[in-house]
Amino acid sequence: MNKVEHLFRRLNLGSTIALLILVTIWLIPTVGLLVTSLRPSSVAELSPWWEGLFNPLSTVWTLDAYQTSLQSGMLESLINTIAVTVPATILPLMIAANAAYAFTFLNFKGKEIFFATLVALMVIPLQSSLIPVLKGMVWFQKTFNIPLTGTYASAWVVHSAFAMPLAIYILRNYMMTLPTALIEAAKIDGASNYQIFWRLVLPMSIPVIASFAIFQFLWVWNDYLIAFIFVGEQKAVMTYQLLRLLGQYGQGWRDVAAGSFISLIVPLIVFFSLQRYFTRGLLAGSVKG
Amino acid sequence: MGDIIFSLVAIVIGIAASYGLYWLLNFLLSLLPEHIQKKVNWLAFLTPAAVLVILVLIMPLLQTVIWSFKDDRAREWVGLKNYIDLFTDERFLGILLNNFLWVLVVPAVTVAIGTAAATLTNQVGPTREKIFKSLIFMPMAISFVSASTIWAYFYAYVPPGRPEIGLLNALVKSLGFEAQPWLTMDQGRLNSFLLMAVLVWLQVGYAMVVISAAIKGVPEETIEAAQLDGANAWQIFAGVILPQIWGTVMSVFVTILILVMKIFDIVLAMTRGNFTTSVLAFEWYKQYFENSNIGPASAVVMVLVLLIAPLMWLQINTVRQQEMLR
Question: What is the pTM of this model?
């Protein structure tokens, strides 16, 4: 083996080059939009973005588009998105953790059937229940005069319900691995189920709760359909706002680009700072063993 | 400012109320005599979840089944009319074809690229592995709407005479061809394939991460034994590694398959279902939110449910197998 070939093998150059090509393809579309969002409007629509990228020094870079975007509705949308996402992440986890406790540590009639139903519901498309839920809410607010549609709370309820099957399934799988001896001991000491759940099982389940929380957070933050149907225009979330920008021709790519990146910042921060938990959660869901 | 305070208050009340609910349920339970308490204690934990699932998932699903046999306004029974209308409508058959193409292309391509990426990242050492994986995985954090924006810009078309801003058309031009309005071109379902690229881009990271973990679980000895026997890299991959990770590869395939069948946002954001790119979930949206046709919309979604049902059975079987391994 000659020297060049040896070096090539040692640094795994072949694999690295292949990966560099793949990553470049993966990043180019995003970089294009990012560059566009950072150029002045006079230039962004008239010269291709890669000219800005190749001559970074002779290009004027500006955050104008972000400022305009925040002032023209994106800031309100950001607040709306947070108001929908935070409870729609915490509530289903609390409800699912309680249910998972019942499935793991308590015995009752029909447990197997309930559980099989949940597993079956994991794959049912959410479109199959959205219209009746919407109609039901409209009927409810007419009858009792309590507003539901167009509020954050309706989105919390619907998101919580759709998260239920998978959340209960994943939390139960984790709780089954907890040491039963500890729980038995607590029972003998006279602890109630309520105490065992809040003081023992919930704190011990933090790893799985953290990874499911990241999933649910990203899912709700990025959701369009439920926000569109149940929150709608009055409290438009960012995906809603972005789609509206995208639909208005003549609005210009620069504003769409800036709006898009504003909606991306939070998920990307969550993703890169908590990637380890995120990956762990993914693996818990699909790798057997 | 008012908005922020209102949102904060709403968030706190929402969470406090649901905690209070569990406290109340347990308190009510503790009032019961002890021997009854033992029999019904599960209710205090399961009731909120059960109520949610029944009210928001199961009962509405049954309602949709019923509505799929009723007319546009869900008043009169029309028997199988909605379904017959769908399957005699050439446009709807085109939609089914689109769904079929999505299912055929996206899971296979995603798993193939994901497996390649997983194999490659396993060979370059921990630092480079981490960086490459993060970058390929990153789209997982992006919404379908943002991803569509990113790709719509990549495919962008400007009328002749103005400078090209879409990278795809610039590349095409530099090769000496004419720029094309890609997303409107349905010859051979070309535009549908361009939409599929967006989903592949989003999901490859998921496939890579899960398959990579499986590859790391393959015992070293089996690979070393094959090396001693003089097998080359490809033979080791196809003959030793692949058979051992096949279960994981299939489970990733099925997960993406289920996602693909329900695909909706990308079609909405990029073409609004125009230029023969519509799929089942988008057709449902159009039937109800644009045309207010309850019956037909319900029938469309029932077709989707029936197509997914076999996967449901697969899911239950997988879970049952896992339970037996416990």
Answer: 0.92
Q: Which domain holds residue B30?
A: 2-67
| Confidence at A284, pLDDT banded by 50, 70, 90 | low
B120 CB neighbours in chain A (<8 A) are 15, 18-19, 22
Is residue B72 in some structural domain? no
Q: How far is A61 from chain B (nearest CA, A)?
A: 18
CA-CA-CA-CA torsion sign (B40, B42, B47, B53): negative
Distance CA(B33)–CA(A193), nearest Å, equals 15
Is B11 in Cβ contact with A123 (below 8 Å)?
Answer: no
Q: Is A85 an 8 Å CB contact of chain B?
A: no
DSSP secondary structure string for all residues of B80-94:
THHHHHHHH-HHHHH
Say if the Cβ atoms of A225 and B264 lie within 8 Å.
Answer: yes
Rounded to a whole number of angstroms, the distance from the CA of A237 to the nearest CA of chain B is 12
Chain B: residue whose CA lies nearest to A135: B60
Cα B185 from Cα A283, distance rounded (Å): 39
**Chain B contacts of A217, Cβ < 8 Å?**
none
Looking at A34, A62, A90, the residue that finishes a domain is A62
Contact of B69 with B285, CB cutoff 8 Å: no
Per residue in A245-276, pLDDT (tens digit) is: 887 765 678 888 899 999 999 999 988 888 88
pLDDT in tens, A51-99: 888 888 877 888 988 998 898 889 999 999 999 999 999 999 999 999 9
- Same-domain pairing of A53 and A124: no
**A253: phi then psi, degrees, rounded to nearest 5:** -70, -30
Contact A193 B60 (CB under 8 A): no
CA B166 – CA A254 distance, rounded (Å): 13
Domain boundaries, position A166: 65-286
**Residue B203 sits in the same domain as residue B280:** yes
Q: Is the pLDDT of residue A2 over 50?
A: yes
pLDDT (tens digit per residue) in A95-152? 999 999 999 999 898 898 999 899 889 888 999 999 999 999 999 999 999 888 888 9
Q: Residue B1: its pLDDT value, please?
A: 59
Q: Are A110 and A244 in a shared domain?
A: yes
B189 assigned to some structural domain: yes
Q: How many domains does chain A have?
A: 2
Residues of B in contact with A286 (CB under 8 A): 210, 248, 251-252, 255
Q: Do B315 and A122 touch (CB under 8 A)?
A: yes
Domain end call among B41, B67, B93: B67
Asked if the structure places residue B73 within a domain, the reply is no
Q: How many domains does chain B have?
A: 2
The answer to whether the CB of B264 falls within 8 A of the CB of B285 is: yes
- B227 in any annotated domain: yes
End residue of a domain, out of A37, A62, A87:
A62
Backbone angles phi, psi at B32, to 5 degrees: -75, 155
Could you tell me which chain B residue has the CA closest to the CA of A223? B143
Domain of B302, CATH number, reads 1.10.3720.10
Instruction: Indicate whether A234 and A267 sit together in one domain.
Output: yes
Same domain, A58 and A70: no
- How does DSSP classify residue A122? T
Q: What is the mean pLDDT of each run of 10 residues along chain B (326 residues)?
A: 76 84 88 85 92 96 97 94 96 96 97 95 90 92 92 90 87 91 92 96 94 91 90 89 90 90 94 94 95 95 93 78 71
Residue A118: which of B255, B312, B301, B324 has the closest Cα? B312
What's the gap in Å between the CA of B262 and the closest CA on chain A? 6
Among the partner residues B45, B145, B162, nearest to A99 by beta-carbon distance: B45
A146 with A224, same domain? yes
Which chain A residue has its CA at the smallest distance from B13's CA?
Answer: A87
